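Model: You mentioned two targets. I'll fold them one after the other.
Researcher: Yes, keep them separate.
Model: Target one:
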Amino acid sequence: MKHSIDCKWTDKMAFEATVNDHKIIFDADPTVGGEDAGARPKPVILASLAGCSGMDVISILAKMKVIPTYFNIIVEGELTEEHPKVYNKIHVVYEFKGENLEYDKLKKAVDLSQDRYCGVSAMLKLGAQMTYCIKILD
């Protein structure tokens, strides 16, 4: 399988990417010539990790007949000081709410995503230390 996207320069530091027929706008901070009209590229990588892993976790939990009433993922990435600045540490927080959520089942779903299914996680682990935690919220 092969993926291909199109990313067109639109103005100053802004670009419009077309991904699966959906538009993503990228732009830089005004201090470096942008107009803050879109997301920065590196944080979008963190969002891709959350989306990839989140889809895995929800799918796995559904097979276990565990349906949370709330599921949120927070991803924090720490950049290196030197150029090219890359994420060298990434921490993922999985937040859940729901009735009778069993921590062991949540952990199994997250572990399967992180260790087996999420391709974004697998790619990022090649260059970054990745950690995660699971929180069951009231």
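Model: Target two:
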Amino acid sequence: MEPATGEGRCPHCRAFWEGGGNCPRCFHLQSLEGVLASFEMAGPARQAVHALKYRFVRALAPAMAPHLVCASSGHSFNAVFPVPLHRSREKSRGFNQAELLVQAAGWDAEPGLTRVRNTGRQVGMHERQRRANVAGAFRYAGRDLAGLRVALVDDVITTGATMQECAVLLRAAGAREVWGVAFARASYRVALPDAPIED
């Protein structure tokens, strides 16, 4: 599996990038302090994400979770939020893959962040469609996060639209920093903003 670290990666969002500074994908991720991802969404990493999410192979979560812990080493978090699914999606799937990863990593899942609108699958949507799709889809009704460093955990981050929408709410609740933590990072092509994105 190809690590989402090192040279040729955006220092902020971990996507492929050989230019200077942050890559253009980061323009819409202002509420995220940064992204901590383990692998590029390709090959075995992509297969693992799809098997967990679409084939419901829950046994993969304990194998994937240590990589999230490794990716976030050196960062201490006061609260960890799994990116929520809508209750109808979680009921049909039987679980939230982000929650499984948080549990398998040995982290305590913080309550209060919910998805109040069923946005459906975003596969095939381009970047702007994804941002519009998740706008207003989440709600936070948890504790005061004043001054806290917070992690948002998911299996994969693609455009970051979902994490950005959640991060806005957590920042409004007082969070000092919100970091995205994911098993995989999908490096979609920034040169084609209207192209459908598979992952």
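Researcher: Noted. Anything on target two?
Model: The chain has one domain: 24-185.
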